[in-house]
Amino acid sequence: MNTQVSVPEYTEEYKQQQHQQVLDAEVVYQWNCILRNKIKELFTFIIGLGMCMFFGVTYYFNQDVLVLYLWGGIMLIFMPVTYFLFDTDYDYKGQITPKGIIIEKTERVPEIFYKATRGMAYIGIVVCVIAALMVGPLAFVGAGAFALLSFKMTGFHKKVQTEVIPFVRDKQYRYMGYESFYQYTVCTHGYGVEEFLRTPIYGVYEVAFSCTDEQLPEIDKIIRQYINVAKETENCG
């Protein structure tokens, strides 16, 4: 016997309405943590080791002092960029309301990197303009892509990602724990509506968030005041 699952019609208007209800509701609990990849330091070390090996081999075959200066300069610039930008940390803020949860992730990168990038972009624009004046319009044949990228990079700022997840009051949820990919005992947890498991809106109503092991009991207790958690799966390790 087939059971027909009642799935709400998820239009853009319905989505905006649901999200606005969550945003307008009173925040009853808030927590903060840092998202940092478990292998962040290892990744940076491997990149640095690879660069050292490359320049070491280069210097072995061409013992020019310029290679050493180039090696030091690139390491000085590229290693901080690798650490902060290639595998970015995030300041994570979660808020619980009676209507749903709000998640904000802000890039945890020193402002000097954004200022330096914007400065390099303006320099790139000036270089393209000078090239056009000296060489003529044909200069943009090779520099067109660089000029376009430079204009885009002038607006390079710290990004904030916001996610709004509404609660479904008349459905049963299953608690799910996921494997941790972060440092500082931070793990991702979630509550999914089983009836929506094989429907397009399953991810829309999956209440997923990250927190430390110490924060989880209080967060879990408050969320269960607003949704019906009928089943459990193992916590993440």
Describe the structure.
- The two termini are 39 Å apart.
- The chain has six helices and eight strands.
- It has three domains: 41-86; 90-105 and 165-237, no CATH class; 110-157.
- The chain is α+β, with helices and mostly antiparallel strands and 237 residues long.
- A hairpin with an 8-residue loop joins strand 5 (172-177) and strand 6 (186-193).
- The protein has a four-stranded antiparallel beta sheet with strand order 1-2-3-4, sandwiched between helices.
- The mean pLDDT is 78.
- The protein has helices at 12-24, 40-61, 65-86, 111-135, 139-153, 216-223, and strands spanning 29-35, 90-97, 100-107, 160-166, 172-177, 186-193, 207-212, 228-232.
- Keywords: Membrane, Transmembrane, Transmembrane helix.
- The chain crosses the membrane at residues 42-61, 68-86, 120-149.
* Low-pLDDT segments: none
Structurally, how many domains make up the residues? 3
Structural class, judged by helices and strands?
alpha+beta
Number-wise, the strands total 8
| Tally of separate helices | 6
Radius of gyration: 25 Å
Tertiary shape: elongated
Largest sheet features: 4 strands, antiparallel
Mean pLDDT across all amino acids: 78
- Residues in helices, as a percent range: 40-55%
H/E topology pattern: HEHHEEHHEEEEHE
Strand content: 15-25%
Distance between the termini: 39 Å
Strand order within the widest beta sheet: 1-2-3-4
